């Protein structure tokens, strides 16, 4: 959600400031201007992605705690341990915004409802 909000804010900025600047830099064939505009254009995208993934990871951990309140902490921990035993490594491999099962288990064992 945070990523979407920041993306909505950044899109007009890039359309009206970033793209014309990059086009001028590439039209002038100046390597320093191309590099400067490229960094200026792509660095916020990377930073927003990182920030968004941290925020979303925290929200997912909070959702785990709420789910544990609904179904019971013991049964939710049991299902997470069962998933870990099945070694669902695909869930953890590529997405930065999804907490690892070990993080989820640690978060729930510390949590007392």
How would you describe this structure to a colleague?
- By secondary structure, the protein is mainly α.
- The chain has one domain (2-110).
- Helices cover 84% and strands 0% of the residues.
- It has 5 helices and no strands.
- It has helices at residues 2-28, 31-71, 73-85, 90-93, 101-110.
- Helix 2 (31-71) crosses helix 5 (101-110).
- The longest helix has 41 residues, at 31-71.
- The protein is elongated and about 65 Å long.
- The two termini are 26 Å apart.
- The model has no long low-confidence stretch (mean pLDDT 76).
Q: Quick summary of this structure?
A:
The protein has 113 residues and is mainly alpha-helical.
- The percentage of residues in β strands lies in under 5%
Mean pLDDT: 76
Low-confidence runs: none
**Secondary structure: helix percent:** over 70%
Counted by DSSP, the helix tally is: 5
Biggest sheet layout: none
Spatial shape: elongated
* Structural domain tally: 1
Radius of gyration: 21 Å
Encode the helix/strand succession as letters. Answer: HHHHH
Structural class: mainly alpha
The total beta strand count reads: 0
How widely separated are the two ends?
Answer: 26 Å
């Amino acid at each position: 959600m945070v990523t979407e909000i920041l993306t909505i804010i950044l899109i007009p900025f890039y359309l009206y400031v970033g793209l014309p600047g990059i086009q001028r830099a590439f039209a002038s064939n100046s390597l320093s201007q191309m590099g400067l505009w490229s960094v200026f254009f792509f660095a916020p995208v990377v930073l927003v992605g990182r920030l968004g993934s941290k925020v979303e990871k925290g929200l997912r951990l909070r959702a785990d705690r709420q789910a544990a309140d609904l179904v019971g902490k013991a049964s939710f921990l049991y299902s997470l341990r069962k998933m870990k035993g099945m070694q669902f490594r695909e869930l953890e491999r590529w997405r930065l915004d999804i907490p690892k099962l070990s993080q989820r288990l640690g978060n729930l064992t510390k949590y007392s409802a």
